[in-house]
């Protein structure tokens, strides 16, 4: 059996540990390098980590804001990248939040737990180890539009970018788990815009939310983002679910949303 290495930051254990336990149940604890049981009191952390890397064939790198800021995790995945160039090591990033992938991993297929949920991610991890060809590439579905969001709880800033070509229809819905009385949503720039409120939006994942629709007559073009501001009226946190684009009359699709 080939060894599986789980590289993560301790702050992400609430989501990583259930995956580690399920993988242990499938492949056996001796085949999973997970620090909670692979490194014991008195062990040298660096030595044990290097031993785990030397034996590993599947290196799952859990990508999050926490792990990208961790020097230890950075050392693990960078060592794994170097090892993969020489040995039979497969590096599989697992995306936990809206963080942007490190440049060196942009060409690597990844598992998107953030978008697809824990059960789908777990199945894909098992499939990768077992050699089942169900691992989907990150660009299996093309999206010209992308929303980049900055949220400091009481204020939300959204920049919707056309990455490759002009989008003639600039009509979007900002989907929030907030009420109309709690949040005001508007265009960042001064100008004419049509704003409407959707009190009930039912999403495929079962979430019920509200939507703030904003549209303008101009197209969204590369280099000129469509910018939206959301501000809390009562000081409560603004809870963003997704951003949707009107692809045809009254037909909406979620666009990739990165939370910074």
TrEMBL record:
Domain TIR: 1-122
GO biological process, one term: signal transduction
Organism: Bavariicoccus seileri
Protein name: Toll/interleukin-1 receptor domain-containing protein
Residue runs in coiled coils: none
Top-level taxon of origin: Bacteria
Pfam assignment, any one: TIR_2
InterPro entries attached to this UniProt entry: TIR_dom, Toll_tir_struct_dom_sf
The keyword Glycoprotein appears for this protein: no
Keyword list, A-Z: Receptor
